[in-house]
Amino acid sequence: MVANVNIDPSSKISDRDLIYEAKLKGKIPELMRGVIRRKTIERQVKQAGISPTVEDLQAAADRFRLFHQLETTEATKKWLDERFLSLDDFEDIITQDLLSERLAQHLFGDRVEKLFYQNLLDYCTATIYEVILEDYELAMEIYYSLQEGDLSFTDVAQQYITAPELRRRGGYVGKVVRKQLRPELAAAIFAIKQPQLLEPIVTAVGIHLIQVEEIVEPKLDAPLHQQILNELFDRWLVETIAADPEYSQIQI
Which of 174, 189, 163, 159 is nearest to 151 (CA)? Predict the structure, then answer.
């Protein structure tokens, strides 16, 4: 039996209709992954003896409302109504989120700092501008013109970038993490110590003209700590589910 979804009876939409629509739209695998993830977390939480207090849940609910800008009871009710959720559903959402956080901290909280220092270079960031060309000789010609000051990077971006938003920003990509980049780009970008224009770099994508605006050494602040914790937890969860005979044969 599928759980009731709090839909207005006058809408004539049943739970069966929703499941059928999810099938037609190819959403069933995504839903199954969510169910398996939730059940796995619940099982592991029970084994670990993790049990949040009422105060913990209230604090988590306050953080949730703050994040979603649900500053009043009316705003919260509207948010729930738009998603066909009840107050009990809201409590379940808060509980599931909090249990995931507590389990992640229980399993990996004492490993984040060590992993950070072991992989320090992976968390370096650079702020860059980029234009990708197809012709190496043209790229070198533009590179020399940029060095001489005959062109600005914005001029090059306006002429050679086709993506409207990136062209509007003058080729400004923003802050990138080392491990997000192709190895040949990362090696060149993070070899420098100060802002500069790099010589054209050839990859399978094309010839990259890159202006490095800033190199930022990593610091284990709260957001990065949470990012690393999430990465460890997600990897562990995938491996745990794959090794579980109850779920390993499910094709999703």
Answer: 159
| pLDDT tens digits, 159-193 | 999 999 999 999 999 999 988 899 999 999 999 98
Euclidean distance between CA atoms 166 and 153, whole angstroms? 12
Query: 48-62 burial, b if ≥16 CB within 10 A, otherwise e?
Result: eebebeeeeeeebbe
pLDDT category at 9 given cuts 50, 70, 90 is low
Give residue 121's pLDDT: 86
Sequence-distant (6+) residues with CB within 8 A of 66 are none
Backbone angles phi, psi at 177, to 5 degrees: -95, 145
> Looking at the DSSP assignment, which residues form a beta bridge with residue 216?
125
What does pTM read for this prediction? 0.75
CB atoms within 10 A of CB 31: 13
Please report the sign of the dihedral spanned by the C-alpha atoms of residue 207, residue 213, residue 228, residue 42.
negative
**Which amino acid, one-letter code, is at 239?**
E
C-alpha angle 123-127-131 in degrees, rounded to nearest 5: 120
DSSP state letter for 10:
G
